[in-house]
Specification:
about 170 residues, NGN-like_dom, 2 helices, about 40% strand, four-stranded antiparallel sheet, five-stranded antiparallel sheet, transcription, transcription regulation, mainly beta, SH3 type barrels, 2 domains, 13 strands, about 15% helix, Alpha-Beta Plaits, transcription antitermination
Length: about 170
């Protein structure tokens, strides 16, 4: 009578993608039949002077792949377009806890869109008569403008400028 060997369950591992190719790696891994999780977050960006919500990787150049240690074929990972390597310590890939993956999923499901600028943040004006001045972000004024506080003659003065003329201060 043969004893059945227990089937090893799949574990999550970390894949490092080539720079700016995480989405390409994700698509190519999924085409090969792997289960992949690429956590993304909604961020606000200023494009053409207006705020827009865009999706960005939570962990730049990293994604998760579900593999069974002695059952799945890991060799195609090395030659998959967009993939740099399987993250390992020594020569041994270290699995990531299922609890951690589930926690990331839950947090991202309830995460609000991250705004471009936060109240109190120091910004640099990069256009117009106030070019090269630092300003403190107060609030958004519509979709394409911001209310700022700028020191003029030793006093904070409120001004409204287009978002396209603002940048994060260095």
């Amino acid at each position: 009578m043969d004893k059945e060997q227990p089937v090893e369950s799949a574990r999550w591992y970390v894949v490092q993608s080539k720079p700016r190719q995480a989405q390409r790696a994700e698509i190519n891994l999924m085409r090969q039949g792997y289960v992949v999780y690429h956590p993304r977050i909604l961020l606000e960006r200023v494009r053409q002077g207006k705020r827009q919500a865009v999706e960005d990787s939570l962990f730049t150049n990293y994604l998760f792949i579900q593999l069974r240690r002695w059952i799945d074929d890991w060799s195609p990972l090395r030659s998959t377009f967009g993939v740099c390597r399987l993250v390992s310590f020594g020569n041994e890939p270290l699995p990531v806890s299922d609890v951690l993956i589930e926690c990331i999923r839950q947090r991202l499901a309830t995460a609000p869109v991250q705004p471009v600028f936060q109240p109190g943040q120091v910004l640099r004006v990069n256009a117009g008569v106030l070019n090269e001045l630092d300003a403190i972000f107060d609030a958004y004024d519509g979709e394409d403008r911001a209310r700022l506080l700028i020191q003029i003659l030793g006093r904070p003065t409120e001004v409204v400028l287009p978002l396209s003329s603002l940048a994060r201060s260095a």
